[in-house]
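wait is this the right file?? whatever heres the structure
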């Protein structure tokens, strides 16, 4: 699928969109992964999928913050890492099983962090977003 998407994206020429592949959802823990029939560590599964995706032509990955350092070490700087599961200190995880603070994710090597409910659910979303931006500046 990644190869087909890459081939299709190439037709856009210089305006080609970035192709991202998802490794293991941040809402999954070991038990949830096993329930899908995949046994073993979350990290091993994420690394396996990451290597497959990059070798098939993906430009980057959507990955758990807990796998950023491992993926950086394994893939170097060739893959862009988009990281959901970001929760500022003191914010509840909701359905996210594997989280990090914005500062931790950036320090680990995330290229982009995805912050949803901690901003959209905040009493003052603008203030919440500004606090996160200041924390990682």
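ok assuming it is, sequence goes like this
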């Amino acid at each position: 699928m990644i190869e087909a998407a890459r081939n299709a994206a190439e037709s856009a020429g210089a305006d080609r969109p970035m192709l991202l592949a998802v490794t293991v959802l941040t809402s999954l823990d070991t038990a949830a992964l096993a329930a899908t029939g995949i046994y073993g560590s979350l990290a091993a599964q994420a690394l396996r999928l990451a290597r497959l995706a990059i070798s098939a032509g993906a430009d980057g990955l959507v990955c758990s913050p807990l796998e950023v350092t491992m993926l950086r070490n394994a893939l170097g700087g060739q893959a862009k890492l988009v990281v959901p599961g970001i929760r500022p200190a003191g914010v509840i995880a909701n359905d996210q099983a594997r989280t990090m603070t914005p500062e931790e994710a950036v320090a680990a090597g995330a290229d982009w962090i995805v912050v949803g409910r901690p901003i959209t659910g905040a009493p003052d979303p603008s203030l919440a977003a500004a606090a996160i931006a200041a924390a990682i500046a």
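The mean pLDDT is 93. so i think its the right one actually
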